[in-house]
Amino acid sequence: MQMVGRNYFLKPKGAVTVLLLTVTYITSYVLYFSYTTPGQANSYLYWLERKLKVRPSYVYQGASMQEENEETYFPANLRVLSNETCPEKFYEMNGKMSVNVDEINLDKLNLQFSGKVKYGGNWSPEDCIPKWNVGFLIPFRNRHYHLPILLRHLIPMLMIQHIKFTIYVINQEGNQRFNRAMLLNVGYLEALKMKHHDCFIFHDVDHLPENNRNYYGCTDMPRQFRVLLDVNDYSLEYPTFFGGVTGLTTEQFKKVNGFSNEFWGWGGEDDDLYARVNKLGYNVSSATPTRGRYSTLQKNHHQESQNLGRFNLLTSSIERNSIDGLNSLRYQPATIETHKLFTNISVDLQPVRMLKKT
Ligand SMILES: *[C@@H]1O[C@H](CO)[C@@H](O)[C@H](O)[C@H]1NC(C)=O
Ligand SMILES: *[C@@H]1O[C@H](CO)[C@@H](O)[C@H](O)[C@H]1NC(C)=O
Ligand SMILES: *[C@@H]1O[C@H](CO)[C@@H](O)[C@H](O)[C@H]1NC(C)=O
């Protein structure tokens, strides 16, 4: 009797064919997956990096990360006079906030805040002199589902903190890849054309703070508000992480020449800003881990594709600092719409030339 079936796996040629087919299949699947759902692909990549310990997990050190004594920190009967500067620690700032991620319609939200927030997303405390006049810059493209959820959460928190604010949504038009950093540069300049601000906070639309003692004002050093994130199991990232929610005074941002304009696609621009900030001799001040906790909005999350060239760009952060940033920024006139709860600065971005090194 003869064997009809063949065992391909014993024959080198057959095995190679099967292997090649499998590799091709997996590769095309991965490519298809990361192309169609870059957000999820990013999350997996991040998860894998952590599992493989490519990203080392650090322990934060230093005085700025010491937890304050939460029991005795806030005087219960704190009173402020209307001719005095608002303190940073109001009694109502009682710590952990509940996070509501349910969908809400913008019109409904407008009603909820009508008479409280002024057109364009402006508010100022009346019972004391606000310490900071903050411009919130929210980089935006197709996140209409997320924006009202963030505003519903953020506005009451800022009111409790007695922060004078204007909320700006910086919308990217056109077909270029998302450029968060360049949008923020545009937002900074356009906001200052309209209003005086002494502090800017760059706030991702899908980040919801979980603790209202995370004070949204600036400090004498660039500030990192976002320390721990729910999707990363609230584990600490690398110590130089400087993304998600960060703040610089108007002066500090000008000094570092803003963000680089070269980061098209997701990632890298925050590390680049960190390099700039460091170069100019600033030390980033950070919220404590208890206060710096954030929830992220996952539903309807269409994340932008990754910028794979970012690692290469990051090797030249220091060299580019003086020739790539606010001083080299060029853009078509922005369209400005005043909505009830925010000012929409919309702009079509195109790559710009770096200035010549002098
Ligand atoms: C505020 O006004 C009170 C009296 O109304 C006065 O005693 C106090 O010195 C004033 N404070 C400041 C900072 O001007
Ligand atoms: C930043 O931190 C370093 C190391 O702790 C310190 O030597 C330096 O003086 C700090 N810089 C500023 C501007 O505070
Ligand atoms: C901002 O304005 C642009 C241009 O009109 C528009 O496409 C975009 O949807 C607006 N964004 C928001 C959040 O209103």
Automatic annotation (TrEMBL):
The chain crosses the membrane at residues 12-35. Pfam families: Glyco_transf_7C (PF02709), Glyco_transf_7N (PF13733). CDD domains: b4GalT. Pathway: Protein modification; protein glycosylation. InterPro entries: Galactosyl_T, Galactosyl_T_C, Galactosyl_T_N, Nucleotide-diphossugar_trans. It is found in: Membrane. SUPFAM superfamilies: Nucleotide-diphospho-sugar transferases. Residues 86-219 form the Galactosyltransferase N-terminal domain. It is a single-pass type II membrane protein. The keyword Membrane applies. It is an enzyme of class 2 (transferase). Residues 224-298 form the Galactosyltransferase C-terminal domain. Its EC number is 2.4.1.-. Keywords: Glycoprotein, Glycosyltransferase, Membrane, Signal-anchor, Transferase, Transmembrane, Transmembrane helix. Catalyses the transfer of galactose onto proteins or lipids. Belongs to the glycosyltransferase 7 family. This is Beta-1,4-galactosyltransferase. It comes from Clavelina lepadiformis (Light-bulb sea squirt). The lineage of its organism: Eukaryota, Metazoa, Chordata, Tunicata, Ascidiacea.
